[in-house]
Prior knowledge:
A: alpha/beta, eight-stranded mixed sheet, 21% strand, B: six-stranded mixed sheet, 16 helices, 6 strands, ATP synthase subunit s-like protein (chain B), LRR_dom_sf (chain B), oxidoreductase (chain A)
Amino acid sequence: xxxxxxxxxxxxxxxxxxxxxxxxxxxxxxxxxxxxxxxxxxxxxxxxxxxxxxxxxxxxxxxxxxxxxxxxxxxxxxxxxxxxxxxxxxxxxxxxxxxxxxxxxxxxxxxxxxxxxxxxxxxxxxxxxxxxxxxxxxxxxxxxxxxxxxxxxxxxxxxxxxxxxxxxxxxxxxxxxxxxxxxxxxxxxxxxxxxxxxxxxxxxxxxxxxxxxxxxxxxxxxxxxxxxxxxxxxxxxxxxxxxxxxxxxxxxxxxxxxxxxxxxxxxxxxxxxxxxxxxxxxxxxxxxxxxxxxxxxxxxxxxxxxxxxxxxxxxxxxxxxxxxxxxxxxxxxxxxxxxxxxxxxxxxxxxxxxxxxxxxxxxxxxxxxxxxxxxxxxxxxxxxxxxxxxxxxxxxxxxxxxxxxxxxxxxxxxxxxxxxxxxxxxxxxxxxxxxxxxxxxxxxxxxxxxxxxxxxxxxxxxxxxxxxxxxxxxxxxxxxxxxxxxxxxxxxxxxxxxxxxxxxxxxx
Amino acid sequence: xxxxxxxxxxxxxxxxxxxxxxxxxxxxxxxxxxxxxxxxxxxxxxxxxxxxxxxxxxxxxxxxxxxxxxxxxxxxxxxxxxxxxxxxxxxxxxxxxxxxxxxxxxxxxxxxxxxxxxxxxxxxxxxxxxxxxxxxxxxxxxxxxxxxxxxxxxxxxxxxxxxxxxxxxxxxxxxxxxxxxxxxxxxxxxxxxxxxxxxxxxxxxxxxxxxxxxxxxxxxxxxxxxxxxxxxxxxxxxxxxxxxxxxxxxxxxxxxxxxxxxxxxxxxxxxxxxxxxxxxxxxxxxxxxxxxxxxxxxxxxxxxxxxxxxxxxxxxxxxxxxxxxxxxxxxxxxxxxxxxxxxxxxxxxxxxx
Lengths: 508, 353
């Protein structure tokens, strides 16, 4: 097929390439069909045998921009859509300004802010391996948003996300689509504290109020008045967010972000990142630079994407992406690995007809058990984090541990809200936290050595509520070279090298 | 519409051309030269002149020492020329950026919905800016009078404690309110009907200590966030009247559980509240003295679409012919076909016919 074009290019030189391709396929039907068979065979073998896989991948890999290739080959790929009746242009662009790995809520937010700043100033490509988000942490979360953290930057990030959701109709509206709505429930979080933690809670509330968050401290008497259905044994006080806190549907937010991104010209690629390519070093003293990423799409073909900046938004699997860039397995400066790993958490749906209805906030018990209402039909979501590292569930699959509900969650909830003694477990699901086991806090900003690798990881369960703020911070650091609104410098990767953790008490 | 778009294209291209062409730049330089001559007389500018001369010498020296090929030199020269008279660089570059930013924006003009959307977004942003809580206003007038001015000026109505009349803006657009802070003037009731208030305006209402009554009819921009932001009024608010606010949903009504002193809630024509009956029953459970008005019996049934359908079916079977025909021919038929046991009965009726 290809040889035909090159040998007789004189005859067909004036025809558009798409027509040439169709002509070729008509004339050399037998050849093309045999080509297809050989291709499918090679795909089968690549699935079966590991040795064959490496060989076949090298053959199929399509190089990045900047390397010399036959122009015919490039044109052929560009016009492939003519015969398959798809839009023109290749599936994976060969170069982009910013490559974002992971198209979940954080990746989409980064892409949104980059494009929001200037839609045509730079190209943005998002690589997402699971476009229906069956494994994404944000989809499998409770969808809560709170301003009650002990680190001021976390409070500011959450407050910014609230502000963004408040004006979502201005921010994310797209033509020919209905106005976005995330179904925000304005219920607020209620943190309960035993006497020993009361002082800490009061200090936190003071700090949050100074930052402008609408949080109030309630004494035991006020709590009893406000929530007559609650058992307050062993509780000294509680903090309640009266405004801007609550929960919403994460799926609707991600969908709205994605639609907006597509309308602004972001390219979403359905594929998986398999590795990075480093730039050729001229001098040995020069630092390494990542130059291209290798993306394997569904059909098994690998594409190289050349980029200027890569943003790691891979959520629980961020450490794998970092390892591809030799972070954690290299020498000297690359010794320190990204301390992020997936941790499985369960969310249980219970039905309790006698439970609290409209005035049920997002209750967080001192024991770590949480409870929130789901809809108005007497359904509730509850769950808990394991207290010990040794009790962490296996992360190989998404199976739910129902014993955990019987042993920990149900007694905890029923102790706080006695009505839950008459409740019935309806269903449950499991999701991953992108857990930062160093200090349970955000990792953001460039890697100290690979300067064009940015992190937006380790959010440890509050990724959804910080996503928008983190996206804006990364945009500012990429385009302006510094943070303009919320200074997140202390969350940089450097703290793992200097071993200075940032303590956050409010991890649920 | 099309003509309007064409005009936009024309003016935009024209200005871009002007902006790019050197001729206009020179023209504008000339027109500015008069003012620059005047400026030269002032002593401060003499210093600048010296430095400009020095710059020129340096540039000429640089150009002599580094001769560049023809096309590049031209641009270089232009660049240095423009550097030389940095104060008078073209007509548009001296303008503030926010006035010229539209020149650089791309609008899709084939599709008028894009324009409408941009307009809608702009309107929302402007309204939000307009409705913000302003400290200077409160400093002069106090919370209550500031809120009254804020509402009456934008087309609403207010009523003070101990007075019978509602205060509204008159035909000439004058606001019948005092312009200084007066003690013991407290707002009792607020009417936001037929206005474009957004959720931000709740910040103005929140500090009011005597507010008992809020009415909102036909407010297209009021949404759940507005009701959620009214929580500081939880001990005082007694009457709330919501009618035809298309953005309010179930989640907004569920925020009302804060108002422990609420006596009466009137709801009607809320399109996006799915379970209005359930919401009102739950609110009545939660707030002891609450009376909900504006609900029909149908809406209070567990699933009102089904129950009304059943009732209609029974009436049809009993021989109310007009309704029978309506129900068979009309759009209700589709609703019946979705419920299995009613579908069977529908089949029976057809056989009878």
